[in-house]
User: Which sequence fits this backbone?
């Protein structure tokens, strides 16, 4: 791995940083997150048209830039630095990657160009926690089901899929989304989805829903991904109150919602969800590194001007040591994320580098945010201070995509560090 950035990679980082510095300050972030859509649509269109941000890591044949995880990580580091509220993670990383991995040629051609241009957005709807469903933390259900089954909710609960009953009337409206949103599914390919999911990232505002649902019953239990139009009357959506307002979470209730399978419905979605989880983990880790770096920069700036005992607070040795520890945490996390992105791009990651990088980045952000609040003193106690935006992001990301100790547990299991690992109910134990 060559740690030096190419001119193209440096241009991605520099251009995006300049654009966000002008248009995405703390007050603008608050206003955009509190809006009805949860993000600034005008800014999203600007980033789409001028920088091609939504299609950065999507294939060039479908309107994307054709770049890889490294460039995506560099871009996400800048969006994380500004805490940009946007559909980038939900639409461009999670949903679009799954469409590219599992979709038919017709589905990719119909859906990906709109997502790559930013004209449309999509959201991944999971019945389970994103960390479990995307394979980022270990889970042992004790039922022998394959990885990814938890994404649809399992054999009971969650979201269940069943073939739609045959309708002899040839004039009926097909359940599949109409072109150009998605290609027709064809006769007999219609499905109905019933159930609900919490904590769907951007689930309340996306134009298209990529829904993980359980099908096959007990004999052939598996998770299949389906496409559901966001404006379908059978899909009831509402935005949830969240700790981190910059990541909009939604509740999705499906009541026999018409759907079309994403790709072959006989194919289990577990491997594609796991692959998507690795790419999402790199993006989330890069955002955490950018946010932690910004916390550190603002804190260093503040302790140089705040005075106590007629001296700048930053001149005290104890403060220097604390900030030095944060600096080391941020830089080592950045190195871990860059290596994980490179390993994923080269196909050399066996599922250990990415979860370790995410764990280290989440730890770095939590440390940087906590130190920022402490060293800003009394003015940082209130929720309205900018430091709390980063503190909330750190806490929210650990709940959605962590926690770090389970990310490290997964990496340890995949590296076979323990002879007989056992993971149940989110706890780790070892016998023998």
Assistant:
């Amino acid at each position: 791995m060559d740690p030096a950035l190419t001119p193209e990679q440096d241009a991605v980082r520099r251009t995006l940083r300049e654009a966000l510095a002008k248009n995405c300050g703390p007050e603008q972030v608050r206003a955009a997150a509190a809006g009805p859509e949860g993000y600034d649509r005008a800014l999203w269109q600007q980033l789409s048209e001028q920088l091609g941000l939504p299609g950065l890591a999507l294939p060039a044949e479908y309107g994307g830039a054709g770049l890889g995880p490294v460039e995506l990580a560099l871009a996400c580091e800048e969006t994380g630095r500004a805490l940009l509220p946007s559909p980038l993670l939900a639409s461009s990383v999670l949903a679009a990657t799954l469409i590219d991995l599992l979709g038919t040629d017709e589905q990719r051609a119909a859906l990906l160009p709109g997502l790559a241009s930013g004209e449309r957005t999509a959201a991944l709807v999971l019945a389970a926690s994103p960390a479990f469903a995307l394979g980022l933390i270990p889970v042992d259900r004790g039922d022998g089901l394959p990885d990814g089954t938890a994404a649809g909710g399992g054999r009971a609960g969650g979201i269940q899929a069943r073939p739609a009953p045959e309708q002899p009337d040839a004039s009926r409206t097909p359940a599949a989304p109409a072109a150009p949103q998605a290609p027709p599914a064809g006769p007999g390919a219609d499905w109905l989805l019933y159930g609900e999911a919490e904590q769907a990232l951007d689930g309340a505002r996306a134009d298209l829903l990529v829904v993980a649902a359980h099908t096959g019953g007990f004999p052939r239990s598996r998770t299949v991904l389906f496409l559901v139009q966001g404006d379908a009357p059978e899909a009831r959506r509402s935005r949830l109150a969240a700790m981190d307002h910059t990541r909009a979470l939604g509740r999705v209730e499906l009541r026999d919602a018409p759907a079309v399978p994403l790709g072959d419905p006989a194919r289990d979605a577990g491997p594609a969800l796991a692959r998507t989880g690795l790419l999402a983990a790199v993006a989330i880790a890069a955002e955490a590194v950018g946010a932690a770096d910004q916390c550190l920069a603002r804190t260093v700036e503040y302790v140089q001007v705040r005075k106590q005992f007629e001296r700048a607070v930053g001149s005290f040795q104890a403060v220097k040591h604390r900030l030095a520890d944060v600096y080391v945490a941020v830089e080592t996390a950045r190195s871990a994320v860059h290596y994980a992105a490179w390993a994923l791009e080269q196909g050399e990651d066996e599922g250990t580098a990415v979860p370790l990088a995410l764990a280290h980045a989440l730890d770095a952000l939590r440390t940087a945010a906590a130190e920022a609040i402490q060293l800003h003193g009394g003015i940082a106690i209130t929720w309205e201070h900018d430091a709390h935006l980063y503190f909330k992001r750190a806490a929210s990301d650990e709940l959605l995509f962590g926690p770090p100790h389970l990310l490290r547990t997964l990496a340890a299991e995949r590296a076979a560090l323990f002879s007989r690992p056992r993971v149940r109910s989110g706890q780790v134990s070892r016998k023998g």
